[in-house]
Model the fold of this input.
Amino acid sequence: MSQGQFSSASGMLMIALSFFFFASSAFAGAGEGKKAFDAAGCAACHQIKGPAKEKTIKDALAKKGPELWYAGSKFKKEFLGGWLEDPRPIRPMEFYSLTKTNQGNHPKLSGKDAADVAGFLMGLKAPEVKDSGIKPQENQRGRIIFVKKQSCYGCHQVKEKGVITGGLTGPSLAGAAERLSPDWVCAYLSNPRVFKPVKDMPDYAGILTDEEIRDLAAYVSNLN
Ligand code: HEC
Ligand code: HEC
Done:
């Protein structure tokens, strides 16, 4: 065997081995994440297996926290790890409350557990969320629908010129760019019942065209 053949063969072996270690450590990461999720009692408030369980308003009100069975399709990974370590309110009001302000007392995880749990949650995907090819952008058509035509703004906070304004009923969309996947926003607006069978937000499927939903998804997923 010549020197060149030898080094390319050993190079291949190195690549195969490092792939093996990478794959097995990613796998161990997901297992650690599930363990940390269970140990911290997260399952007491969060559903991690789909499909959505709630059928009536009573079921929806009994939920103690948002479902996470499609977390990997909804969130950006960089956001999740950081948020679990330092959870700031996303919903201005307490979950399913119209009167109590969110006190921001969500359980916190330490750095390693936060990263492991984020890895585990990112593995929870919903097949309904397809690759939409939507790129976050300052989309003027989306903006007009959001602010004027459908007044999404009446229920959702956004940041305008550095100031937070907008309604308090829904989750804040200020910072949606770092938090939400455009593919999920599109899937959610197109088919909300997959994610929230008991609707709390108006259903825009059939009211907005597919094109308008794509414009909105590009606009929303670009909000800072
Ligand atoms: C006592 C109930 C409760 C427990 C326990 C709990 N959560 Fe939550 N979780 C909530 C509520 C309520 C929200 C909504 C908070 C907000 O909007 O600011 C939330 C939000 C979240 C979100 C964002 C979901 C979204 O759709 O916006 C994630 C991710 C999350 N929790 C993960 C976890 C993890 C991981 C644990 C375990 C360490 C955990 N939670 C423990 C109640 C809980
Ligand atoms: C009447 C109030 C209301 C209006 C109007 C409204 N929403 Fe919502 N929206 C909500 C509520 C409430 C939720 C949370 C749903 C739930 O958890 O059941 C929500 C959830 C969302 C989410 C998911 C956010 C997250 O972090 O989970 C997005 C994205 C969204 N709305 C976008 C829009 C857009 C775009 C429009 C306009 C076309 C709109 N909303 C109009 C109340 C509203």
Summary: The chain has a mean pLDDT of 90.
